[in-house]
UniProtKB/TrEMBL annotation, chains A, B:
Spans through the membrane: none
MF terms in GO: DNA-binding transcription factor activity; transcription cis-regulatory region binding
Keyword RNA-binding: no
Alphabetical list of SUPFAM superfamilies matching this protein: lambda repressor-like DNA-binding domains, Periplasmic binding protein-like I
Phylogenetic lineage: Bacteria, Bacillati, Actinomycetota, Actinomycetes, Micrococcales
Gene3D superfamilies membership: 3.40.50.2300, lambda repressor-like DNA-binding domains
Entry keyword annotation includes DNA-binding: yes
Protein name: LacI family transcriptional regulator
Domain HTH lacI-type, residue spans: 11-65
CDD domains recorded: HTH_LacI, PBP1_sucrose_transcription_regulator
Database matches in PANTHER family: HTH-TYPE TRANSCRIPTIONAL REGULATOR GALS (PTHR30146:SF109), LACI-RELATED TRANSCRIPTIONAL REPRESSOR (PTHR30146)
Length: 341, 341
DNA sequence: CTGTTAGCGCTTTCAC
DNA sequence: GTGAAAGCGCTAACAG
């Protein structure tokens, strides 16, 4: 019997009742631990259910209850590195209870997203989390959705929605403050695509921290792609133009890896001659570099968990508020900024 | 109205019927494109549905139809790199139609898996895809599941189940054949944890290819972790012990990155002096190295798609067979084995 | 304590 | 063409 086709229809509550010799209602009560059932009867019902390997039909239940114990996760870019931890966090928060997650990947396509949204609504999900692929604001799903919606990572462009997004401004500030506290004063910035809100927010934070210390960025921020290649090329240019830099704040761990490569090629010792800090704390990159990479971690899993929690709260009727909330990030210090003893 | 609590209950079919001035039955027929409805009536019903933004209740439908248009995706390691493409492939295959995916991550915990399985069954999913985190066989869910089950990546340990897994043997063979076709004859192998079936299968394939060419591996396969660190250390040992190697087959792209690093440090030119081939074709690693990394791609997205297709077929009553099927992998050639002109 | 009854929202005969 | 009625599997009053 490949891939299991048991001919027999799955057992229903009435099958259980019949086998136990009681009414459906009594069977229901027994199975749901209601206290107005004789112990002996409950035993009999439980045994019957066991024997038939009875599994209650969640849909029938949902039909009555009005809630399905189901939430929709509407992502736009499953492949993206940032989606996964958020998704895990959400799954975690839900997984504990009776909730299951519908995963829908719109592949960044608005039409598909609308289609998925419709499907979720028709499945009567109790709530929806929308996970974007960047921290740039995305179009709101609108205010007409009959269930609570929370936006994670990419905030909604409608301030009436509730959005949770990592605090890139503070991230940029923390990175610089760390470098300064390591005694660096000639700090440059290499980052990715200037069109990303993330890039700009981090720069703003970085500049604020420099300002506060009476410092300035060495040269202008260098923009291009979020890749190792760019990190290498940019570092080469930087070190030639400004040989006196003593630290580089990188917009991503990938860029930082490239910077480390070039520093090595040019005989600059990290962190002694040059401190390097990355962003995202992509473990597999950050812990396998030489030296290991100090980085800013956006706590995405926690962000996902919080989004889920908010959806829960809203389902329970709690007012979860609105607007875009910037969640704390954290600094993870490794050998690329602090010499190991 | 944050997070959208529209006070009014979502519209039901009977609301639509009332507004259109017809019976529920007629409204149902009109909305489902049944042909025994007058054109004018249908128009009226459709307009009413539109006006109330009526969304049919999939659960009520499912109760009647006996199928839910829903499949369960039971993964054991969401974080893993291999899960995602499979998951995407499956979502793709399903997404086209009316099917939605329930995502459950068991975090590699059998208890949690059982719990999730129960939840899926009670939600009356039409089928289940089980995605493992390695290519080592995993415990079967058993033959008692009332819906079709397909195992992806990690095969089931029960041959009565249907499993789809990448062909690591052929992958190993292809890697070596490619190196040989590049004129290499002194080939070594650096790989990860010997306890992984993947590691052993690839070695077996590699040895077969070497045999066929009358060659032998240089030294024994070097086992440890699947990390860049190990790749660097192993390469250093290898090049010292066997300075005459002209190619290294690596068990993962991460290891290969490490090997490239060391080769560079020791002044070995890649690919001229030393050809390097990785495994997994992890794009972000493979395309950002110097030179770019030739690698074996397991076509995971396609594997996911196929798994979904099989589940579909089984739902439609097609016999999908049983046993473990090894799906083709492919060689992606880049600069680490072939000099760029 | 237990069983009867009435639905949840929808589709589907089967009369009219 | 259209509508009344019978459920899908289950829970929640309410009687007994």
């Amino acid at each position: 019997m490949a891939a299991n086709e048991t001919g027999s229809r799955t057992a229903t509550l009435s099958d259980v009742a019949r086998l136990a010799g009681v009414s459906i209602a009594t069977a229901s009560k027994a199975l749901n631990d209601r206290d107005d059932v004789a112990v002996a009867t409950r035993q009999r019902v439980l045994r019957a259910a066991e024997e038939l390997s009875f599994t209650p039909n969640a849909m029938a239940k949902g039909l009555l209850a009005g809630r399905t114990g189901t939430v929709g996760l509407l992502t736009s870019d499953l492949e993206g590195r940032f989606m996964i931890p958020i998704l895990m966090g959400a799954e975690d928060a839900f997984g504990a209870g009776q909730v299951n997650v519908f995963l829908c990947d719109a592949r960044g396509d608005a039409i598909r997203e609308q289609h998925h949204l419709k499907a979720l609504l028709s499945r009567r999900v109790d709530g929806i989390i929308v996970v974007g692929r960047q921290t740039d604001p995305r179009p709101s799903l609108g205010q007409e959705i009959p269930v609570p919606v929370v936006y994670a990572y990419a905030p909604s462009d409608d301030p009436r929605d509730l959005s949770l997004t990592p605090d890139n401004y503070v991230g940029g500030r923390m990175a610089i403050e760390h470098l300064i506290s390591c005694g660096r004063t000639r700090i440059a910035h290499i980052t990715g695509d200037p069109a990303y809100a993330a890039a700009q927010d981090r720069i703003a934070g970085a500049r604020a921290a420099l300002d506060a210390a009476g410092l300035e960025l060495v040269g202008e921020p260098m923009f291009s792609e979020w890749t190792e290649h760019w990190g290498r090329d940019a570092a080469a240019m930087l070190l030639q133009r400004h040989p006196d830099v003593d630290a580089v704040f990188c917009g991503s761990d990938q860029i930082a890896r490239g910077v480390l490569d070039t520093a090595r090629d040019l005989g600059r010792r990290v962190p002694d001659d040059l401190a390097v800090i990355g962003y995202d704390n992509w473990e597999v990159l950050a812990t396998n570099s030489r030296p290991q990479l100090t980085s800013i971690d956006a706590n995405l899993q926690q962000l996902g968990r919080q989004a889920a929690q908010r959806v829960f709260d809203a389902i329970d009727g709690v007012d979860i508020g609105q607007g875009t909330h910037h969640l704390p990030v954290r600094l993870v210090i490794r050998g690329s900024t602090i010499p190991r003893r």
